[in-house]
Amino acid sequence: MAAKRVAVLVGCNYEGSMAELEGCVNDVWAMKDILRERFHFEERDIHVLVDNDPKFHMPTGANIRQALRSAIASTSSPNDAVFFHFSGHGTRLPPANARPNAQLSPLDYDECIVPCDMNLITDEDIFEIVESLAEGVRFTIVADCCHSGGLIRYEKEQIGDSFTSQMSWLQRVSCNNSTDKTYEKEESITDRGKKRKETHVGFGRSLPLPALLHIIREKTKAKHTQLSNIRDVLVMNFKDESSAKFRRSMDLFAGICFKKPKQCQDQEICSSTREPSHYLKECDAKTSHVRNHQNLPSKGVLHNNAAILLSACQAYEVAKDITPVSPHKDMKSRSTRCKFGAMSYAIIAVLSQLDPSMKLTNRQLVMQTKSVLLEEGLSQQHPGLYCCDEYVDVPFICN
């Protein structure tokens, strides 16, 4: 029986919001063409979620999770393949109990992709979905967004230095939890409607925390939303469709708060209602996992080590939208001045120019994608590869 190939393609342009992007839906249609023409995916096995066409499912948090679960459930045999392409914003949440102005490394944050309804999908949510893969089924993610390097938790960083070098991060950026100063050098997201740059390089795909908070306040009517309670607000608004990690933290928080004093060994936690950070610290300790990408065992954590992630940039960089200087012939017909995600465009350009009889490994694709980005003037965007050693040099997506 022929191997089954299933894809979930997600494009979020966030049209009309302060988070608006322009190239994400274009990425989806271009990637769909490549999947059909080069990898022979069947139309019925490609599930598209975009936020600008009512004929397709909206890329809400619930819909993305359900699409991924359904895709994985439809595969069961060795050599089956699931492909997930997300094009949109990424963001990162500091620990709920983090102090203002504290310096944090990438390992300290919850990395999230941002659906159109702001129902964040965390790295641990992706990991839990991937855990249900049948043995032998390969799962590949292309994440064309910022803060995507840890979306497959615990997998080894093969290309990049976001996690393997703690010093490289601390030397490159100074993190500030309250204002997200990592991206101060980028144009303010609130100014995007006022000023459109003429250069072919467009906006970044990182949703700054102040903008995220503003949009969530508008969508949920929860005007009290702050970094310290954003997880709780999302759980209360989206309930069972919210991040499982956020729900676990909230359940633990409730359990700690309502312990009877005689049952609690830590009287300070039970009695100090004026210091919620005590509760949050205990919740974080119980729900967090160690993510040391440098010291991972060679076989990773997943039972079949079949998860592969191609991320758009390093933790200290910004993934960009671009209008290609010399669009590939397969993309020109879409628009005379069409924007794409830089990472998505580079991958599609590399694959489109490849002889149909040739296959690229994950490593080769990432390295050639870097070259295309450099040709497009993006010398500060370096894609990453995360997977176990076994999958570094296997063909991209499927054999």
From TrEMBL:
SUPFAM superfamilies: Caspase-like (SSF52129). It holds the Pfam family Peptidase_C14. Residues 4-387 form the Peptidase C14 caspase domain. InterPro entries: Caspase-like_dom_sf, Metacaspase, Pept_C14_caspase. GO terms for biological process: proteolysis. Coiled coil: none annotated. GO terms for molecular function: cysteine-type endopeptidase activity. GO terms for cellular component: cytoplasm. Belongs to the peptidase C14B family. This is Peptidase C14 caspase domain-containing protein. It comes from Ceratopteris richardii (Triangle waterfern).
